[in-house]
Amino acid sequence: MTTTVAGPTRRLMEGSEAIALASIAAGCRFFAGYPMTPFTEVLEHFARCLPEVGGTCINAESELEAVGMTWGALATGARAATGSTGQGLSLMQESFAEISLAELPLVIFNLARNQGDYFQATRGGGHGDYRHVVLAPLDITETVELTQLAFHLADQWRNPVLVYGDYLTAHVQESVTIEPINFGSVPAKDWAVDGSRTGTGDARLLSPLGIAKVGTEPVGIEAHLRRMTAKQAEIQRRETRVETGFVDDAETVVVAFGSPARFVRAAVRELRATGERIGYVRPITLWPFPSDAVAAAADGVRTVATFELCAGQMIDDVRLAVLGRAPVVGIGGISTDGSGFGVGQLLDVERVRERILAVHRGGPDAELPALPDNERALW
Amino acid sequence: MVTIDTEHPPSNARQVGALKPDLLITGEHHLCPGCGEPLALRCLLDTITELELTAQTIGVMGIGCYTAFSMTLDVDLVQALHGRAPSVATGVKRMRPDATVFTLQGDGDMVNEGLQEVLHTAARGEAVTCVLLNNGVFGETGGHMTATTVLGQRTKNTLEGRDAAYHGYPILIGDLLARLEGATYVARGSVHNAGAVARTKKMVRRALECQERREGFSFVEILTMCPTGWFIPTGEGPGYLHDTLGEVHVMGELKVDGRIRTTEELHAENVARQRDVEARLAAGGLDD
Amino acid sequence: MSTITSRGTITIDVEACKGCELCITACPPQVLSMGTALNQAGFHSPLLHPGCTGCAACLFVCPDFCFEVFRFEQPMATAVPA
Q1: How far apart are the first and last CA of chain A?
Q2: Number of domains in chain B
Q3: CA of B10 to nearest chain A CA: how many angstroms apart?
Q4: Full set of structural domains in chain A with CATH
Q5: What ipTM describes this predicted complex?
Q6: Cβ separation B16–C54 shorter than 8 A
Q7: For residue A202, which of A169, A282, B3, B206 sits 20 to 30 Å off, Cα-Cα?
């Protein structure tokens, strides 16, 4: 294997490798993870590439260790990340909650088995009042950008940022260039520990408990939590990202995110070319959710349709954004082959187009084209 | 009965022991009367000072009564989740290999909630020092059984004493860790009397020296009194520790320079040491 | 009257004491006893009697960091009732 880290390179690579290389370009020097399909190759690429730049990748004994190690690395001021599939991230939720309260700039990669981790990603999944910034890339080019943005935003806000991809993000190969992206400066890490303040009377404490060293300004858990909440509101104001297309005169608007949004966008473009007044909204940040853009797009339409590769979770946020301006219906659904990795029959532009057209013509109560049972097992 | 003034320091004497360890911002704390944890903490902090590791030490705190010291320790600290300190310490050490990294955890934290963490960290041979404060109960919740509670020990959820058939057997974590290749130094001390404290301090010193030499994982388990969680008068704490926990979790160096020592060896050494300590105390001092 | 020699002495931070009495049994020459006075928090604290060796056993076992320990350049003799 040739050296792949140094210098900008434009070449064909799968998303897993792009994530590792983009992370390194962003300055990430620590990664810990536990193998789990379809995330495994992200770990493989980090394990191969991080030592080349003097970084460390630990094949952790479990997700619990992985997130704990990353916590420690972050505490020293390093850019560090962990990841898994949604299942593995379930194991890390306790740490995610507390890392958020400790205000450490964690970056998390979810290479998920479907879009049913939406609630896990956007609602927290752990305990307490915290939110993660959630970025959902469309393709590998955007994955390279959003991976680097994740490290920037994490440092900017001292808040975890989750990149929510899927099987396609991990394994589709695209030709991409990876070089550092300058998103501007971030605050100095004047909170990190290196041991040098021990014994000086000025030692630091990185705690999620809202406590501080005796003699420093007392914080208190209530004030600490209120400050967290205020920070979340500020993130919502400033970091919402969304792509919209053809919404101005649309009669039907489709909302979708991540890789499936690519299928939706292709279908909508095809339908537009035939004169159908259909638009789309693609949340790039799932939290903060682009409620204003969704609300604006929903104004005056007959139907808002959501296309998700799960039973329907983002639809709740869409309904909250639309607030009764238009009926909201789900046109996605559970779709997987025997592998269980979410790459099922719905991931097909033809099928997506059929479903969009069904609600576009028939309105919110339209019957959706049935999918044949898919009982084919992988083995 | 003649009483000596203990309010004012004497003018014609040299100080041989200070009120509080240098690495505590204040000695004030809200742990219970008779608690052994501050004694163990003193062993650790004074040793860090004596080895001149102060300007390079990072601590990772578990969750238990001792967590209260995170506000008064003049040490760069990372607060971990219950049980997860060894992994956090791993991340710290990998990114700051020149730092001295320790964890401070209780038996509920390390042996119950986070057993796999400490085992894997030891097996990996991470050059960190894990310090366990083992009192055989969840002190902070009010005296409940942990994985190190000894058979027969009464706790709030083993009211008739821990029964092996019903509650299972205690884990001797030091013995378990000593078996792992990556663990270089493993010792079990106690703070039930001054001699034990002095001996434990030496164990902490050896563990930190082992880390400084990057020889692998080092571990010191320190048996501590918890009269509140044991439901006994404070004055009975040291005796209860010695006779109850100490009988099962036998004190001594369980692994030195990679050599594992048997419980019989430790017992024999303990008898000899006790004689020595008594002789030295009679002669007037332990501070060498 | 007779005299008892003290090679060392201590100071006690009475207000920090929680009255656990660990020092009483730990003291090898047994020159500590519990006093009857209460501190602000309502705890008894120890009293020192002649005969301290400055061994620091009290300091080693004190959970509340109450003790400072000193050794005299020349041992002190204290007169006590016979």
Answers
A1: 32
A2: 1
A3: 28
A4: 9-178 (3.40.50.970), 243-362 (3.40.50.920)
A5: 0.94
A6: yes
A7: B206
